Amino acid sequence: MAFGQVSGPPASPKQVQELLSLLKEAGHADFRDAHGPMGFTRRQAAGKFTREEAAGFIDRLQDAQVDAGSPVAVPAW
User: Where are the alpha helices (DSSP H) in the chain?
Assistant: First the structure.
């Protein structure tokens, strides 16, 4: 794969919105704010994810929640 190319189809707008919502619940303002703590690449910090990446981050954030509606600190991976 050439440098800078994404492997896989882009995340759906619904996935991106769900991920952003979970990040906000975890105390982040946006994707750039979560760049370091979540380990996002520059592309991801700009809100561009593959379907697989978005699903993985969504799962990790959901697993980190203690209960619905209760924001928790998300450890850096």
Answer: 13-25, 35-38, 42-45, 51-64
Report in angstroms the alpha-carbon separations of 38 from 2, 3, 53, 56: 25, 22, 12, 11
What is residue 26's predicted lDDT score, i.e. its pLDDT? Answer: 92
2 Cβ partners below 8 Å, 6+ apart?
none
Please list the rounded mean pLDDT of every run of 10 residues in the chain (77 residues).
Answer: 74 97 95 95 96 96 70 54
Other Cβ atoms closer than 10 A to 32: 14
Torsion angle of C-alpha atoms 10, 12, 15, 19, degrees rounded to 10: 50
* Tokens 């850096």, located at residue: 76
Take residue 21 and report the two structure tokens written for it: 């919502």
